[in-house]
C-alpha cells in the first residue's frame, strides 16, 4: 500500500485567451455576497469563479467581450476588480 500523492493539477480555462492552464497560474475572480465581482487572491471566496491569465491582453479581451460577467452570471458586476487585478509585470 502506497500513499501516493497524486500530482494532479486542476486546469482552468482563461476567459481571455481560452487556453487551459493550471489553476494556480491563473487569477480567480469571484462574486462576493453583495454581487460584486472581486479578485479572489486567496482563492477562498465561495461560489462561482472565473479565471484569467495575469496578463493585460487576456484581461482586455475578456472585458471587451463581457466574458467575466457572463461567466459569473451577473448583468453587471462592476469593473472595480480590474484595479485590483494582479497583472504580471515583465
Ligand atoms: Zn489567457
In short:
With 90 residues, the chain is an alpha+beta fold.
If you had to describe this structure to a student in words, what would you say it looks like?
- The protein is α+β, with helices and mostly antiparallel strands and 90 residues long.
- The chain has a single domain (11-84), classed as Hypothetical Cytosolic Protein, Chain: A (2-Layer Sandwich).
- It has helices spanning 56-65, 67-71, 81-84; strands spanning 11-13, 20-22, 27-31, 37-39, 49-52.
- A 3-stranded antiparallel beta sheet has the order 4-3-5. Strands 1-2 form a two-stranded antiparallel sheet.
- A hairpin with a 6-residue loop joins strand 1 (11-13) and strand 2.
- It is globular, with a radius of gyration of 14 Å.
Identify the notable features of this structure and list them briefly.
alpha+beta; three-stranded antiparallel β-sheet; 5 strands; 90 residues
Tell me the layout of helices and strands:
Blueprint: E1 11-13, E2 20-22, E3 27-31, E4 37-39, E5 49-52, H1 56-65, H2 67-71, H3 81-84
Antiparallel strand pairs: 1-2, 3-4, 3-5
The structure holds zinc ion (ZN).
Amino acid at each position: 500500500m502506497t500513499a501516493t500523492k497524486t500530482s494532479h493539477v486542476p486546469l482552468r480555462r482563461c476567459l481571455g485567451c481560452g487556453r487551459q492552464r493550471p489553476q494556480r497560474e491563473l487569477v480567480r475572480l469571484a462574486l462576493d455576497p453583495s454581487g460584486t465581482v472581486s479578485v479572489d487572491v486567496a482563492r477562498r471566496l465561495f461560489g462561482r469563479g472565473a479565471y484569467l491569465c495575469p496578463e493585460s491582453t487576456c484581461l482586455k479581451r475578456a472585458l471587451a467581450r463581457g466574458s467575466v460577467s457572463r461567466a459569473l452570471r451577473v448583468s453587471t458586476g462592476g469593473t472595480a476588480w480590474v484595479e485590483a487585478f494582479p497583472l504580471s509585470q515583465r
